Amino acid sequence: MSRRTQPILKHLLSARSRSVTYMPRPGDGEPRAVTMITGDGVGPLVTGAVEQVMDAMHAPVYFEKYDIHGDMKSVPQRVIDSIKKNKVCLKGGLKTPVGGGVSSLNVLLRKELDLYASLVHCFNLQGLPTRHDNVDIVVIRENTEGEYAGLEHEVVPGVVESLKVMISNLLSGSAVMKERIAKYAFEYAYLNNRKKVTAVHKANIMKLADGLFLESCREVASKYPSIQYNEMIVDNCSMQLVSKPEQFDVMVTPNLYGNLVSNTAAGIAGGTGVMPGGNVGAEHAIFEQGASAGNVGNEKEVEQKKANPVALLLSSAMMLRHLQFPSFADRLETSVKRVISEGKYRTEDLGGDSTTQQVVDAVIANLA
Fold first, then answer.
1. What is the Cα–Cα distance from 368 to 362, expressed in whole angstroms?
2. What three-state secondary structure class fits 37?
3. Dihedral sign of CA atoms 341, 274, 306, 285 in order
4. Does 13 have pLDDT greater than 50?
5. What is the mean pLDDT of the chain?
6. What's in the keyword line of the UniProt record (predicted)?
7. Amino acid 209: pLDDT
8. Which of 59, 64, 148 is nearest to 109 (CA)?
9. Rounded to 5 degrees, what are φ and ψ at 100?
10. Mean pLDDT, to the nearest integer, of 82-110?
């Protein structure tokens, strides 16, 4: 073999070893508009972090930014119109008033856009010490019904009635609402090579409402014989989560239980500051920090600019996959995980003293 042909052969062999991970349709590489809600407290810090990283890796997205706050009476129509047009939104945390005052804008957005499924991915990050290993849990929560329907009234002075709404056999377009959260959970498990779905409930007490939820889960489970299905009462589930979290794979829950379960799972796996999540419906999706953003109102983090951007960076990687930009998502996720594993740049909630900007700079420096 001549010296002249050796470099050519080497090139051909290296090209042949590459696997085809995504075959785009013509036009898939066009930059996509994404609505951005900067949010309250640390929201502008962490959404700004995402913008910097997206710019650094030349991701094919650009943001339409809106300055929205949780104490507003409603979400301005121009924001709703932007999300409906773009189909995708990235959101910083919105503070929800406790007790009286305005309704939660987070809930209003979910209802307005019919984002019926919430997904939070709770998993161990290499280099981040936790009490349990081998945690890799996806919590899928019904997002628009249950106690979050917000139907409350005072029957007589001092007596308040709060309604839990579970909808059966009510057609919304072409979808039967009682089955869609169960179907989404099993579809997710099937498409992501997950082996088990656990339905979390309180049907031993709420026999009609949670009984309807279990009925839907059992019906859908019968159509996915390759996926193991089991059920667990929510109080036992809470105990099992903190003692043997490795037993869970995908969990599907009604609205209120899902909020509690996802935050518990996030705490076990490393904290709410590193867990990605999103809310999705048939037409639209909003990506945000996975578990409750308890740091939204942390004035110290705002003043010192030390908010943890990891959760929203990982959520934006989920967003990139949703937009069918998988290689950009892989680059971002790999870089974030490398920074966490090295341990040099971490914010206070992860045992470090880094600023948001220092973490962002480290992520950018580690982009492959």
1. 12
2. strand
3. positive
4. no
5. 87
6. Transit peptide
7. 84
8. 148
9. -75, 180
10. 84
If one compares 115 and 167, the residue with the highest pLDDT of the two is 115
Residue for token digits 């909808």? 167
276 phi and psi, to 5 degrees? -85, 160
pLDDT category of residue 179 using cuts at 50, 70 and 90: confident
CA–CA gap between residue 55 and residue 343 (Å, rounded): 24
Report yes or no: 248 and 194 within 8 Å, Cβ to Cβ.
no
Q: What is the CATH number of the domain that holds 145?
A: 3.40.718.10
| DSSP string computed for 75-123 | --HHHHHHHHHHSEEEE---PPPSSSSSPPHHHHHHHHTT--EEEEEEE
Same-domain check for residues 115 and 224: no
| Residue 108 to residues 80, 101, 143, Cα–Cα distance (Å) | 11, 14, 11
Instruction: Give the closest residue to 312 by CA, choosing from 297, 326, 293, 330.
Output: 293
SS3 64: strand
Domain that holds residue 203: 131-269
Give the pLDDT of residue 285. Answer: 97
| DSSP letter for each residue of 134-201 | S-EEEEEEE-SSEEEEEEEEEEETTEEEEEEE---S-EETTEEHHHHHHHHHHHHHHHTT--EEEEEE
pLDDT digits 0-9 by tens, 98-155: 655 557 888 889 989 999 999 999 999 999 999 899 999 999 999 887 766 666 767 7
Residue 109 maps to a domain: yes
CA distance 272 to 314: 12
- Verify that 157 and 240 share a domain, yes or no: yes
Q: How many domains does the chain have?
A: 2
What pLDDT sits at residue 169?
A: 46
